[in-house]
Amino acid sequence: MTLRHKSAAAILFFQMLFILPAFALLSLRDGAFEPLTLIAGAVLVLFNLLQYNLLRTAFRHIDRFSLLAAQFLWSLGLVVLYRLSPDYGLKQFAFLLVGTLAMVVAMLLIRKSRDFGRWNWVFMALTLLLLASTLVLGRSTYGARNWIRIGSFSFQPSELAKVLFVIVSAYFLSTRHRLLSFIPYLAFTAVCVLLLVAEKDLGAGLLIALGFLVMFFAATGRVLLTGVGLGVLGAGAWGSYHLFAHVRTRVEVWQDPWSSYQDQGYQIVQGLMALASGGLLGVGLGRGMPGAIPARHTDYIFTVIGEEFGIIVGILTIAFYLVFIVRGILIALHARSVYDAILVFGCTAMLSLQSFIIIGGVIKLIPLTGVTMPFVSYGGTSILASMIQLGIIEGVAEKNGRADEEEVELMGGESL
Amino acid sequence: MKDVKKFRRNMRISLGLFVALFVMLIVYLGYSVVTYGEKWFATPYNPRVQRAVENVSAGDILDRSGVKLAWTQDGKRSYSGDKTTRLAMSHVVGDIYGKSVGAETIFAKYLYGLDKDLLARFQDARRGREDEGNDITLTADSALSQYIYKNMNGKKGAVVVLNYKTGEVLASVSLPAFDPNTVGTKEPADTALVDRAVMGRYPPGSIMKIVTAAAAIEDDVDLKYTCTGSEIIAGQKVTCVHAHGELTLKEAFAHSCNTYFANLAVKLGGQRLKEKAEAFGFNDKFNFQDMSLYASNFEVSAEDGDVAWAGIGQYNDLITPMHAAMLAGAVANDGVMMQPRLLRDVALGGYSAYNFTPRQYRRVMSASTARVLREYMREVVKSGTGTSAAVKGATMYGKTGTAEFVEKGETKNHSWFVGFIDDDDHPYAISVIFEGAGFGSRYAAPMAAKVMKRAIS
Question: Chain B partners of A291 at a C-beta cutoff of 8 Å?
Fold first, then answer.
């Protein structure tokens, strides 16, 4: 335990070592020294330290590595966002503060996760309401109708719907056994995916469909049925490829973005050029040219990281998601109730699939469907959703730790 | 939940799946940027290159003997003062507007100093030459190119000369050419901006017989065949210029007998032919560093008639002049095809920052097959269809081609010649095509002889 603690502190230290020089560089960018930028960096460092220590004090058993991986990811995101525009950076920092609050609330609520089942129908209704709301009130950006604007405040309901979907899934998957009793859940999933497809929010649709399949497979162990589900998803993809021009365009652009670099392929081509110009070590913070990349602060932030910090840091970023995934699944394996286990497993699966879908799309491994990069991309709802999921994972980790402690005491030993 | 153990096991399986997905991300990211990064970067649409064009004084482009082909003076890009040189080298050098794909675009990274590492940038900043690019030296010989350009006499087509041992492209001339000085202001004529040498995909006609013969030599197939001037194969009539009579494979190759090779192709089979053609680089996207070489095409159908035509370079066969020269070069180089190269050196503030080492494309046939093919190709020039390609004082090898195509309802012939000379000091391979000119033996072969003679002098 002590050793673990030390290594965690070391990671925290290296994280500081990255943030401060990055902001120092940014403060010198326009030739003149800009003290406010350096202060912003110092505030971020203080925030990370304070958050880490306070959480460690209030919740003794939280998983340090998940938290530190998330801290690295949002710190990298904040550096890049501040570099793109200080305004993005400051707003994102505010989202992060609110997100931390949401995370703590989620951690506290998870103590009473036994009672979530009673609210299941409310959660279901809320999910559908959120998803349907964009059809009525929604605003289109980048071809998808997935935003709602209320006054000067805009948010993306599908981000929160993802979290609710995991909670609803955990209830069904932990309480139902017979196949027939799954029908309401299957219908619910289908409606969610169809609503997202109707809104042309293919990324979120794909995410929920894949997340459902993984959770269903793990919880029920029905390989055949999961295979059928995968087949339905494939057939749906094939069908929409032939039915909808915008899906066809996505696939064609994925195969050859260069032949339509001026219109449909523009974003992918710009992203690839950015990654190529970064090379292994990157051109250096502030020396790149992300100005031409659409959605550089949200979905495409990975290309900015690639250009200025290089492929090596890009790979490191992917590795941090991996840390997150491995720790998440370990916590799920350790959970005392099946419900909690599925909850943590679902959140981990959603976060990892989401990062895979966007990074894979950006580097042209799979067709591009727009979702945000968890913890890194700019966006209030995105950060909020990621932080709630982190809160759920950490909340269960805390519960696991307490249960361990009680068991040790029962056996008459001393708690660690 | 029936079985918690199973649930735990499934979660572990899912973890394995996620880890596999992320490892795939890492591997693909590294692989694609290392393999295609240069291509992705060096396009005129890259805003980084565009910015450099505005702010950086681009370096000089020199030919292999140091002749200046392009340079920057007072912020203006200038090209060779000699108009013939400008036109002859136009596709190799390119233009700064990115309308053609030449060295100006492909090597923008060097020319605008975008390849400089941290140390070089630091040194440049100290010396105050931050906004200066690097000079590059090409493998091409401007004098030879100029000679070729003049002798093509305005006829549409392309000539490629390369060193088959190193892959260095000595000349790559495409007509019609354009003047880089006026690209931005005057729209060049017709298809002048297209580099026919690397983008022109032509039916290969009889030069394809090199590939068919290679497959036959490997499979040890030699038909006992008498050519009567024409034959109907699987319902398709294949004709020769005249009846060749009784032939061996070598004689059929030397005299370019269509009916013999059509029968041979059917006997070898479509799949075997396709396999051999792909070994020679057909259907490959050629991801070469120094040029955007278009893919050559080879396909067959289940019909014997189509296989017969494919085996003699018609049907849907297509080849670029550059690839045709590589093909001849592979025969000369004991079966090893070299990657064509255009960049010889990069000068970074007085010292060389580029280490030219020849790169193999791949071994396309065994050395023994290549040696047999050499004899065949020698016979073509000695006694066959390519006698007009003979060069005094050197041993010339080759293959003529007369590729049929239909333009506006009229059947015309591309005149082809590919070959090489056996000379340790001058290991050169050549390909010549004149669009719609007529027989390969009459137009392309004599041109090849002229160019080779000049190249070794």
Answer: 47
Interface test with A, best of B8, B15, B55 (most A CBs within 10 A): B15
Domain extent at residue B275 = 205-341+360-456
Q: Domain for residue B39, yes or no?
A: no
Q: Shortest Cα distance from A151 to chain B (angstroms)?
A: 36
- Pairwise CB contact (< 8 Å): A318 & B22: yes
Contact A315 B29 (CB under 8 A): yes
Tell me if B380 is assigned to some domain: yes
Contacts of A313 in chain B (CB under 8 A): none
pLDDT in tens, chain B (457 residues): 457 888 999 999 999 999 999 999 999 999 998 888 888 887 777 888 777 777 788 889 999 999 999 988 877 888 988 889 999 999 999 988 878 889 988 898 888 877 666 566 666 666 666 677 889 999 999 999 999 999 999 999 999 999 999 999 999 999 999 998 888 777 777 788 999 999 999 999 999 999 999 999 999 988 888 888 888 888 888 888 888 888 899 999 999 999 999 999 999 999 999 999 999 999 998 988 889 899 999 999 888 889 999 999 999 999 999 999 999 999 999 999 999 999 999 987 667 778 899 999 999 999 999 999 999 999 999 999 999 999 988 899 999 999 888 888 888 889 999 999 988 899 999 999 999 888 878 889 999 999 999 998 8
Q: List A residues 307-326 in contact with B (Cβ-Cβ < 8 A).
A: 311, 314-315, 318-319, 321-322, 325-326
**How many domains is chain B partitioned into structurally?**
1
CB pairs under 8 A between A and B: 118
A214 in reach of chain B (CB within 8 A): yes
Residue B306 domain flag: yes
Tell me if A314 and B24 make a contact (CB, 8 A cut-off): no
Asked if A221's CB is within 8 angstroms of B11's CB, the reply is: no
Kindly list the residues from chain B whose CB atom is less than 8 angstroms away from the CB atom of residue A219: 1, 7, 10
The domain spanning residue B368 has which CATH number? 3.40.710.10
| Nearest chain B alpha carbon to A176 | B1
**Shortest CA gap A49–chain B (Å):** 29
Which pair of structure tokens corresponds to residue B222? 């030699």
Domain range list for chain A: 115-410
A-chain residues within 8 Å CB-CB of B17?
214
Is B297 inside any structural domain? yes
CB within 8 Å: B30 and A315:
yes
